[in-house]
Amino acid sequence: MAAATSASLFSTVSSYSSKPSSVPHSRLQAVKFNSLPSFTGLRSTSLVSGSDSSSLTKSLRGSVTKAQTSDKKPYGFKINASYKVAVLGAAGGIGQPLSLLIKMSPLVSTLHLYDIANVKGVAADLSHCNTPSQVRDFTGPSELADCLKDVNVVVIPAGVPRKPGMTRDDLFNINANIVKTLVEAVADNCPNAFIHIISNPVNSTVPIAAEVLKKKGVYDPKKLFGVTTLDVVRANTFVSQKKNLKLIDVDVPVIGGHAGITILPLLSKTKPSVNFTDEEIQELTVRIQNAGTEVVDAKAGAGSATLSMAYAAARFVESSLRALDGDGDVYECSFVESTLTDLPFFASRIKLGKNGLEAVIESDLQGLTEYEQKALEALKPELKASIEKGVAFANKPAAAAAN
């Protein structure tokens, strides 16, 4: 599987450096683009190769996009690498594979890698990949401002990983300070950028980022995103395995937050429509909620879910880039400022556009099953507490927040 995936990825890149495809325009219109992912140009690869989809395409349910048949911008055939992306924490366990995946995007012209140490080697390594983007490295606080100048998308995986027995809440004090410092720099140097928060606990670090941006006078709730894509990736994978479905057809919206019981997969809204027994619903819900712990325990102290997180984060980056580039039908789940519930932040499906969040998909919370409605009410107190913890941290005096 790994070899096949790698081959699919590299064939994606080569398809942009070779001569224009001879695939007729009618073929482009005939493809079910709304079933294919918006990720590293894989749609064009499957067209050029003549296959239905690559191995990576089959394993990834990307942003839902309709066919782009305009003469101005037919995706997969005429893509200009024109966006700058910065990864803050690029030398870490998530940062390195994430940077590799972003380097493979045909939409990225410049990739800035920042960390407090060991990032120069990562950048040198990635710079040898024959993809369009130019890679630059930045080390330490003195180079952070230069890293962020004119950046379109900032991705923040910086922080310490989970270890066996550690909850996301245990990470709070360390990662909260890291996110606060980095977002302050973002506010000063690229306040109009999309900001993707990966650092856990996301239920608290996103509110921290929002408060920092408010204090700086540059907060735009449409451009701040908590990356919860991994919950969707896991839900799609587990449901596909359980019900023997084609993975590319499976789409499970996941709402709430990004920790434990605050993660709520809406299995009743799975596409394609499928029936679950009560036992299956319970089993799948609990597994999706505890999937991070499943990986932490399996790695036995050697790390957390770095590879799948990088994969999911790269998907969200690519969705953001396609939205920025004018793709008018891009949807993802994300933890954002929301009025969908009585909580100030909430994860749900959203529509992305050139200016960030265009719409929250309210219909996802309509017609919930009794199980889902009860789970929704049960998660609210924990999510509320996490949000309030983040807000309180961000508003502490500097000395107190450092302790």
Automatic annotation (TrEMBL):
CC per GO annotation: mitochondrion
Domain Lactate/malate dehydrogenase C-terminal residues, every copy: 228-393
Record family assignment: Belongs to the LDH/MDH superfamily. MDH type 1 family.
Top-level taxon in the UniProt lineage: Eukaryota
Residue ranges the record marks as coiled coil: none
Name the UniProt record assigns to this protein: malate dehydrogenase
Pfam families in UniProt: Ldh_1_C (PF02866), Ldh_1_N (PF00056)
PROSITE patterns: MDH (PS00068)
Keywords, ordered alphabetically: Hydrolase, NAD, Oxidoreductase, Tricarboxylic acid cycle
